[in-house]
Amino acid sequence: MFVRQNRNRSGSVSVQILRKERGRSRVLRTVGCGRTQAEVSSLLQQAAYLMRNMQRHGLLFTSQEDRQVEAFLATLGNDQVRVIGPELILGKVFDAVGFGAVQEVLFRHLVIARLCEPGSKLRTVDHLQRYMGVSTSVDSIYRFMDRLHAGLKAQVEQIAFAHTRRVLGGKVSIVFYDMTTLHFEAEQEDDLRRMGYSKAGKHQNPQIFLGLLVGLGGLVIGYDIFEGNIFEGHTLIPFLQAIEERFGVKKPIVVSDAGLLTKDNIKALESQRYTYIIGARLRNQPEEINTLIHAEQWADGHTRVVHAQGKRRLVVAYSSKRAAKDAHARKRGLERLEKNLRAGRLTKSSINNKGYNRYLVMEGKVDVRIDYQRYDADRRWDGLKGYVTNTGLSPQRIIDHYGQLWQIEKAFRISKTDLRIRPVFHRLRRRIEGHVCIAFSAYTIYKELERGLMDKRDGPNL
């Protein structure tokens, strides 16, 4: 047994205790790193003390059987070590959801790998070989994705929905819908990958729309993909009808944000006998309704049904916390406009109703200025939030249900960051759908693991 000093690239010196075994030096313990001579001297003294104790009391292995185990482990190389934690934990959740019924072992490997080491298919091949001892190739994965699209995708979606319905007590009574964009590292468009408004700011890349439907707690129900240049307001009704036909969901309450609030959508939802809660754009309401809104003496937590037409109601709520947030956002938007105006970056083309550009006006023939009166007038909207609904729920229940929309935003955030569903490098539609299906399955596992941990923390597991 001896002590060794190693100088690292950063200039620090690490102090280690080693032992000679079969002609090789094995590190028993790293004492620490020091940058100054005094720190290194102190570490050497600690190493000497630890080494004396280790020699006096023996090493970690004391019995003959333990020494045999230690000798065996010393013969193993890195290429013979397998990581079994993901399969022990995630594999158990995979089976609990019901995905074990999919008779393709590569599906299991790809879903678990997406959770552990999300990345390209080449990176997945390396991960499976290096850590799971699974030998495959990129071509094999592509061939599997073709099979996934051809027949397994419907089975996977049915399993995920059946699990969600089981967790929710056998009934899906309320659903949350939203859309996001997934861009491609490509330049050419095709029938599916189209240039359009990108929520990620990747306007120069072809994209697709991904629609996601979740239940309470963010549990997955279904998803679909659409052309990248479609108006998202046109996707809601076809999506709901497809989900209803595919899974037999019977007219749940549909909750969505204001991006899907159009007259056509409202009429279609009502004609199909759906109940809904959709975020309202209060500034776009008729003048007589806005007059009623601002005639109210709003206090924190106050709600009111401002307008009703048949079963359709406009509910407005006020929050002092939201008011502070709105005021802060407006101030930051104004500061950005002022900065761009001073830099000469604002032109006639900048004048539109997008975001805080609505404060810009033309002065004379060529000059652009900020309309501070309109900026001050917008203070009256701070803290107000509107909801359009045809449910018979109380205003507070409506607000509570709409407040669960953050779950779907979290689902998109997890898919884009933790699972790295984007950017997408595939070209063929069947491969794109296979890629999304694998990420969708991985998210299902993620949510079930999260649910199990929460149940364990709060009480007995279900």
Structure description:
The protein has 462 residues and is of the alpha+beta class. Helix content is 45%, strand content 19%. The strands form 3 sheets. It has an 8-stranded mixed β-sheet with strand order 6-5-4-7-8-13-10-9, sandwiched between helices. A 3-stranded antiparallel β-sheet has the order 1-2-3, with helices on one face. The chain is globular and about 90 Å long. The model has no long low-confidence stretch (mean pLDDT 84).
Integer average pLDDT: 84
Helical percent range?
40-55%
The outline comes out as globular
Radius of gyration: 30 Å
Strand order of the largest sheet: 6-5-4-7-8-13-10-9
Query: What name is given to the CATH topology of the domain at 172-319 and 383-425?
Result: Transposase Inhibitor Protein From Tn5, Chain A, domain 1
CATH C-level name of the domain at 172-319 and 383-425 = Alpha Beta
What are the secondary-structure elements, in order, as H or E?
A: EEEHHHHHHEEEHEHEHEEHEEHEHHH
What is the annotated CATH architecture of the domain at 172-319 and 383-425?
A: Alpha-Beta Complex
Report on the biggest sheet: 8 strands, mixed
Measure the end-to-end span: 52 Å
The overall strand count is: 13
Low-pLDDT segments, ≥5 res: none
CATH evolutionary superfamily of the domain at 172-319 and 383-425: Transposase Inhibitor Protein From Tn5, Chain A, domain 1
Number of helical stretches of at least 4 residues: 14
Multimeric state of these chains? single chain
Q: Please report which band the strand proportion falls in: under 5%, 5-15%, 15-25%, 25-35%, 35-45% or over 45%.
A: 15-25%
The secondary structure category is alpha+beta
